[in-house]
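Question (not urgent): is this output format expected?
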Amino acid sequence: MAAERDVRARLRRAGQEHLLRFCAELAPGPRAALLAELRALEPGALREHCRRAAAACARPPGPEPGLEARLRPLPPERVGSASRCDPETRRLWEQEGFHQIALSKVAVLLLAGGQGTRLGVTYPKGMYQVGLPSQKTLYQLQAERIQRVQQLAGERHGTQCTVPWYIMTSEFTLEPTAKFFKEHSFFQLDPDNVIMFEQRMLPAVTFDGRAILEQKDKVAMAPDGNGGLYSALSDHQILEDMERRGVEFVHVYCVDNILVRLADPVFIGFCVLRGADCGAKVVEKASPEEPVGVVCQLDGVPRVVEYSEISPETAQLRGPDGSLLYSLGNICNHFFTRGFLQMVVSDFEPLLKPHVAVKKVPYVDEEGNLVKPLKPNGIKMEKFVFDVFQFAKNFVAFEVPREEEFSPLKNAASAARDTPDSARRALLLQHYRWALRAGARFLDACGARLPELRSLPSAGEPPAICEISPLVSYSGEGLEVYLQGREFQSPLILDETRARALQP
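Got this back:
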């Protein structure tokens, strides 16, 4: 009873005593679990969290008044391009990136704390199969890209190098992710170099500022957004671990991009040679209306401004060359120096402002009945990983071709975009283009040569199915030795075994 009195007093100070309204009817085990969960919530922080959530939700929707007058495109000298640079410059970027990887100074950090709610699954999104012939999951594709980039860097520089893989999970994704990796032997990576850690959870809040009970014995909690990275780095001494390993540069990315290039040497090299402490990969917006955040300047500092904060008129503005003025679409793919991350954790993390996400949150009503709402009834407060751009001393953006590097998996098959089908097609189209460039020719079922369609609509299927293992090629390199001058019937699955059989 002493524990309950203490928790009740703490909740009273926070204005959230209603969270104990079913405590008396709980069995000893569930009661103890609830009290332990509530004891971990600091009263002042809980009160302020609920107040800020209700206040933020009460603000009128739409762009912040006067925001657009403070917007400017990112200066051209702060933007590089993987496709519009000359070949020698690109070679120098790639060479520098491989050099840093070979020195084991590069790590990758995966943001994998979100639930696959929109995708319609109950397990972490990285475990999803989009329907590739190999049946590989997102996690496996990413693990194999790490292996391949390590191999390429080691071969170039005659070293044994390591790209540590840090994976930020949440209460929802840590256990199934850890189990999945163990069941698959960490996809042949050294388990000591796969470091999982958990981000913080925050209570979901009603529109009038009351924390929500999800069950009689459990508060409705949600991850604190991908911007929760910075407090999680501190909570789990991740930066100290990086320092022990000699890591200086960190590539941070989101789990759902099937085309993501982990530790991309070109991106790493570009950022290092520019002396950047913070960088972002971007793609050119497909249209003014595309719902992606824009990397630009706000009040003279780099920011990501959400598409909902920009009016249609501003979104359609064009520069002298006819291109969109605000064209740099954010794809959650970032470069940080370890020193910059240390500065964010020690000095700037408390300055990050949470963003409001209005969601349907299951809850128990006053009679203790479980209710699954049909419309949004609660607020989840999230921080965004890119909100630290404003603190960078030398920020750069790096534009990459969408068809080569960005196809997110966000929605169930019934949606219009960013579905399992669109992700699968994007990868197979990429591999088809790689195979053609390497000199492969494809035949139909009757043995007739198929037309070579190098330019394909993103929504169409490739004329032939070709899947190339990341263990064989990271970004299309080295395929000529297996494919040049050869004819294949669809499907062509170029894994390590097939590649060895094709090698002259």
